[in-house]
Amino acid sequence: MISALIREDKNVISLRKNITLRGLGLEKTARFSISISSDLLRRFDNAMREKTYINRSKAVRDLIVDFIVEREWEKSERQVMGSLTLLYEHEARGLLERLAEIQHERSSNVVSTMHVHIDEHNCMEVLALKGLPREIRELADRLISCRGVKHGKLVMSTRGEEIT
Ligand code: NI
Hints:
With 164 residues, the chain is of the alpha+beta class. It is built from four helices and seven strands. The protein has two domains: 69 residues, no CATH class; 78 residues, Alpha-Beta Plaits (2-Layer Sandwich). Strands 5-6-4-7 form a four-stranded antiparallel beta sheet, covered by helices on one side. Strands 1-2-3 form a three-stranded antiparallel beta sheet, with no helix packed on it. A hairpin with a 4-residue loop joins strand 2 and strand 3. The structure holds nickel (II) ion.
């Protein structure tokens, strides 16, 4: 478990990490600092408030946990689930064909797709994906990097078996 204590020092964020030693009830504390521009820190504080965080400790702690979970997800050898949202202009030359070609090639990883016609030009596609993390990540990267895709985001999830 990580809890972060942050001391405001102009643009230096100091963090204290508490590690509970199992069975002993002792806490080992490690400290580290992050130097970022004051502008970035101001924007972080604004974003944090918008997300209704009361202090930086919890906000930074959640970012750290999210980062660790993502890395563990990517290294896992288990079957996982993911959802990919793509936003694109359907008139982009060859884009629809390319997106369909990639999805057909990897049909074992694509469970379902939903297509939304947003307006005259823009479409949104949401893909439910399954497979090994590296397969899903690679498939998502290939689709997102197609010319004409304006935005793409993969949400990594699990099959839920280990979550109680
Ligand atoms: Ni459309």
